[in-house]
Amino acid sequence: MPKDLAELRNIGPTIKNRLNEIGVHTPADLKKVGAVSAYLRICASYPQRAIPVCYYLYSLQGALMDCIGTTCPSA
User: Fold this and answer.
1) Listed residue (59, 4, 61, 55) closest to 28, CA to CA
2) 5-71: which CATH topology?
3) What is the pTM of this model?
4) Rounded distance, CA 24 to CA 8, Å?
């Protein structure tokens, strides 16, 4: 597994920064927290903003499964 979040598929600078803000700094951290929990934590950190589920949640799950968000097989 890569050592930096930016090495994961679907993780760009904005998502990486938001993950860092919630205490997720490595791919191992993301795996431990899980995509849904990470998404919910990001949403809680930005209550004034609508965080698109179809972008963030799919991107996070895709990063964990090494696939492009909407093309990931169902778990």
Assistant:
1) 4
2) DNA polymerase; domain 1 (1.10.150)
3) 0.86
4) 13
| In contact, 25 and 19? CB cutoff 8 Å | yes
Question: Minimal CA–CA distance to 24: which of 47, 5, 3?
Answer: 5
Nearest Cα to Cα of residue 41 among 64, 10, 19, 16: 19
Q: Are 51 and 39 in contact (CB under 8 A)?
A: yes
Q: What would the pLDDT profile of 15-55 be if each residue is shown by its tens digit?
A: 999 999 999 999 999 999 999 999 999 999 988 888 887 78
Rounded Cα distance between 21 and 18, Å, is 5
